[in-house]
Specification:
The complex is a heterodimer of chains A (227) and B (298). With 227 residues, chain A is of the alpha/beta class. Chain A has helices at 41-49, 74-78, 96-105, 111-124, 140-152, 170-185, 197-202, and strands spanning 2-10, 16-25, 30-35, 56-61, 64-65, 81-84, 158-162, 189-194, 206-211, 214-219. The longest helix of chain A is centred in the C-terminal third of the chain and has 16 residues, at 170-185. In chain A, 42% of the residues are buried. With 298 residues, chain B is an alpha+beta fold. Chain B has two domains: 2-54 and 159-295, no CATH class; 59-153, Alpha-Beta Plaits. Chain B has helices at 2-18, 20-57, 73-82, 94-104, 135-143, 156-197, 199-207, 212-248, 266-295, and strands at 59-64, 86-92, 124-129, 148-152, 252-253, 255-259. In chain B, the strands form two sheets. A four-stranded antiparallel β-sheet of chain B has the order 2-3-1-4. In chain B, a hairpin with a 1-residue loop joins strand 5 and strand 6 (255-259). Chain B starts with a helix and ends with a helix. Classes of the chains: A alpha/beta (227), B alpha+beta (298). Chains A and B meet through helix 2 and helix 3 of A and helix 1 and helix 7 of B.
């Protein structure tokens, strides 16, 4: 469960990103976070990812106060959440298999564990036939699926996606959302940060609209107010 | 554990292969730095040897006043030996002095045997000093004692020579210590470039929960490898270069008194030190760079 209690974030340059922000996301939910540039979406991801510390308030993820995590504990925390960014961030010199395996190798999983889990993930992301391909040989949608595969390799309870369809055409965007729904069905909480309103309108989920660091609307049926 | 070590070595080697140009220039500079260090080490060791040999050779010749009675000699010897900087005092009676004098002239010296019954030479103390720097001061203090007729040492030239050697030794040490930070800084920059070129990979590592030590260890190993590679040429150069120099000089400098340090095991010790310095600068430079680059990012 994710709980943000009266969270404010003011950067060193004085920018107010989040303003007395409170939010609760239950386990297994699928949530869109939408809003214009500068609304606080990226800061929210950084706070959930442990990359930034709130200026005020608490960020609790599965009972862990993320803002209070000691420096050395942050990597261990990150193993429990998956993050996907818009730019695919794949290692071009590694195959699909190796890119996914990378997430398991850095946490010292055995070769056998890595092999087994990567095979499972390749099935989930429907790229079993492309395991030996390099990222440059794949389409944008396929690359993004590999990134999602890498993010779920550790079996995270939460998957945070920052504009996962930002660089994709509608057909590939649909594939990505369907993949995320599939992952969500297995119990993983999915948070999709986007400003792709077409996507939000098509695949109705709980939708939280941000503006100027505050929640403008939060609708479990996928409704939102046009700002 | 072994898997982790294996990965760290593999990645460190990858870093070296993928930044060949930068690594090459750093290795060359480290080699030059260590070669300078080697030359300074050889110089300092040989100065130590020469200084030691000179100090072993130089003695203060102290003539005892003829008025001093035989029974007071022992007490006077004790007084001399108590002077700071005196390493040893040997008493030589007038008869021994004459024998020594005759021996110095070889076969023709026998003509001085006629003085055996009416010996004009004085009794003396042969004083050895603990360091060459103190010879004039020791001589001066011995001269102030009652019962001493005359004090002779090799002259200020020897003392100045020893002082000069001491000065060169100190300057060498300072220079050697000054160039080590330069080598560290070079490795620091190389690793910084490695980190920059691998920023994407490091970013992903962070994203999926790699610890800082997991990211840092291959980088530190890379620095150590660069240090070791940089040390190889100076080590080989030290062994063969010094051997060549030693043979050319017949193991001595100017005269037989100034002997050079033997090639073995001396050059092996210097090589071991160079290798250790290579590892040290690699370790410090890369650790510093990796720590600085990774520190401020959560």
């Amino acid at each position: 469960m994710i709980v943000l209690e009266n969270v404010s974030k003011i950067y060193k340059n004085g920018t107010k990103a989040l303003n007395d922000f409170s939010l609760e996301i239950q386990d297994g939910e699928f949530v869109y976070i939408i809003g214009e540039t500068g609304s606080g979406k990226s800061t929210l991801i950084k706070l959930l990812n442990g990359e930034e510390i709130p200026t005020k308030g608490r960020v609790l993820v599965n009972g862990t106060n993320v803002g209070r995590l000691r420096f050395g504990k942050v990597p261990l925390y990150r193993r429990k959440i998956g993050v996907v960014f818009q730019d695919y961030q794949l290692l071009k010199n590694k195959t699909v298999f190796d890119n996914i395996a990378f997430a398991l190798e850095v946490i010292n999983k055995s070769k056998e564990e890595v092999r087994k889990r990567v095979k499972e993930v390749l099935e989930i992301i429907d790229l079993a036939n492309e395991f030996n391909s390099y990222p440059t040989e794949l389409s944008g949608g396929q690359q993004q699926r590999v990134v999602i595969g890498r993010a779920i390799a550790n079996n995270p309870s939460i998957l945070i996606c920052d504009e996962p369809t930002g660089n994709l055409d509608p057909r590939h965007s649909k594939e990505i959302i369907e993949l995320l729904e599939k992952i969500n069905r297995s119990g993983t909480t999915i948070i999709v940060v986007t400003h792709d309103y077409v996507l939000v309108d098509t695949y109705k989920k709980r939708t939280i609209l941000l503006d100027n660091g505050s929640i403008v609307s939060d609708d479990s049926e996928g409704g939102y107010i046009h700002v | 554990m072994f898997r982790r070590i294996g990965r760290a070595f593999k990645e460190a080697w990858w870093g070296i292969r993928h930044h060949r140009a930068m690594v090459f220039s750093t290795v060359v500079t480290i080699s030059i730095t260590l070669a300078i260090l080697s030359i300074l080490g050889v110089l300092i060791a040989n100065i130590n040897q020469i200084t030691y040999d000179i100090e072993e050779e130089i003695q203060v010749f102290v003539k005892i006043d003829n008025d001093v009675e035989e029974k007071d000699i022992e007490e006077l010897q004790l007084k001399v030996s108590r002077i700071s900087g005196v390493a040893g005092v040997v008493y030589s009676d007038a008869d021994s002095e004459l024998t020594y004098f005759i021996e110095q002239y070889g076969e023709s010296g026998s003509i001085f045997e006629i003085y055996r019954d009416d010996n004009p030479l004085s009794r003396a103390f042969i004083v050895s000093v603990s360091t060459g720097f103190s010879i004039s001061e020791v001589s001066k203090q011995i001269g102030t004692l009652d019962g001493i007729a005359e004090v002779n040492f090799g002259g200020f030239a020897i003392e100045n020579f020893i002082c000069l050697l001491g000065g060169i030794r100190k300057a060498g040490l300072v220079l050697a210590l000054a160039i080590i930070p330069l080598a560290i800084y070079l490795i620091y920059n190389t690793i910084k470039i490695t980190i920059h070129s691998r920023r994407e990979e490091i970013g992903i590592m962070r994203l999926v929960g790699a610890t800082n030590s997991y990211i840092r260890i291959p980088l530190v190993l890379e620095g150590i490898f660069i240090g070791i590679i940089g040390a190889i040429l100076p080590c080989v150069g030290t062994v063969f270069g010094y051997q060549y120099f030693y043979e050319q000089m017949n193991g001595q400098l100017i005269s037989g008194i100034l002997k050079l340090v033997d090639v073995f095991p001396f050059t092996l010790y210097v090589s071991a030190i160079l290798l250790a310095v290579g590892v040290f600068v690699g370790l410090i430079g890369s650790w510093w760079s990796a720590t600085r680059s990774l520190r401020w990012k959560r």
